[in-house]
Design brief:
single chain; alpha+beta; 16-stranded antiparallel β-barrel; two-stranded antiparallel ribbon; 48% strand; elongated
Length: 460
Amino acid sequence: MKHAVFASALALAVAGGWAMPAAAQSAESLSVQQELAAMRAEMQRMSARIDQLEGELAAAEAKADAATATATSAQAAATAAQAASAKAPAIAFKGAPEVKGDKGWTFKPRGRLQFDAGTVSSPDGTGQGDGFTSEARRIRIGASGDMPGGFGYKFEVDFAGSDVAVTDAIISYDAGGGLTVSAGQMNNFQSLEELSSSLHTSMIERAAFTDAFGFQRQVGIAAEWSGGDVLVQAGLFGDNMDNLPSKRRGVDGRLVYMPKIGKAQLHLGASAHYKDLPAGSTVRYRQRPLVHFTPDRFVDTRGLAASSEIGLGLEGAMISGPFHVAAEGFWQNANRPAGLTDPTFFGGYAEVGVFLTKGDTRGYKDGKFDRTKPRSPVGSGGTGSLQLNARYDYLDLSDAGILGGTQNGYLLSLVWKPTEYTMLLANYGRLEYDNAALAIPVGDRSYGVDAFGVRAQIDF
């Protein structure tokens, strides 16, 4: 464009020069040349300015393009980060990290350590060892969680005693409406004391009848329905995983009514148990004196031929503020082969407990005792919870001509929980025996045994 302007100006100048008279040309020549020089200078300045503006425009356009690309990249990165954040698993901490992914996935490692020590003192001549003993009562590790579609799982292995034993191996399905169906190795439905976790019991060991009558986890399929204050549980079971394959089969059922009365939690329950035994089977009912770390058993029926077992249990408990009471009774009948009398044995307990620390109470959930959560735990400026418990524990293994012995236990325990997931427990028991399975040299089978145990516990 600048060259066209210059050409036009030059053409006009030449045309004008030819049109002038010759005399005037000489006089005005200098003026025209000066004007042309000025015009050339102005056009050069304008050309330079145009070049400058074109350069600035190109730079501005480049900056705009770069800014647009940066903004687009930032938006894409933000969108990707947002999508990644939406899909990233959330991690909560409930004693151990609990990972929650999308679509209903969860995973939580779990475990417990329980170390016991103490003494058992029995009359001379029983042939049973006395003195200090210790053991790793439970060393468990496992995991639990949920899966998409309403499924869940729980798996735990126990390494105590240098053995490896599967405790829980459960697949569950939430069918909705309060109904849950489970399959695998699990507790069958007997006794409030048995179904409450060993982490949350008030004594170092559960009531004598639970071990004496052989309550243990078994492989089976079960259904549980919970609606308001009512819990119904039933299942078909075989045998413990360690004893499989097995021809034993049975059925268990439990009904619980658990209303809240004001601030108090009430628990009323009943259970029934039937086990069919293959031909030639025997059963044996026996129990240790309070603690597990002794092999001594002062009540023992020895082996009894039996074709089946029938058990019936009643449960009752109440929690009100720092106080709780609990009581159970269980009748175990052994059906013996033709011509032999069927004995019925009985066990039960009654317990009272109180927290000595302000604001603490015993936990309860889903028809069983649950975790105690200290109101003022150690580490948060408090001292944890301190609970005192007293129990009368009764077991009668004598009936129908079988003298397995009778045990009357008087127990005291002190439970200190520094935090929700740690515990120290001290437990003393005086066990009075009649018709004991072990006699002292003079033939007396009625005597007393003292047992003392302590436990250190941590779980996650």
